[in-house]
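Exercise: predict the fold of this chain.
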Amino acid sequence: MLSQLLPMLAITFTVFILFFVFMGIGYMVKKKPLKGSCGGVAKLMGDEQCSFCGDDPNKCDSLMAEQQENALRAAQLGKSV
């Protein structure tokens, strides 16, 4: 029984490690943080509205654009955000 369990654990551990390595590479290439769907888990739990964007996915995008714009302004002023 142990001889069947160890290879399965090794494969599972390897898949998780590869998953995190590829996520890291994707972050380094795109330089964008990971983001979830608008209210994904909240909708599964029965909540009516997304607490972040109020069920308006464009608002989430506009907030991200505003944050990037503010970061650029701060960089131009020589300050870190």
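Check your answer against the key: The chain has two domains: 1-34, 37-81.
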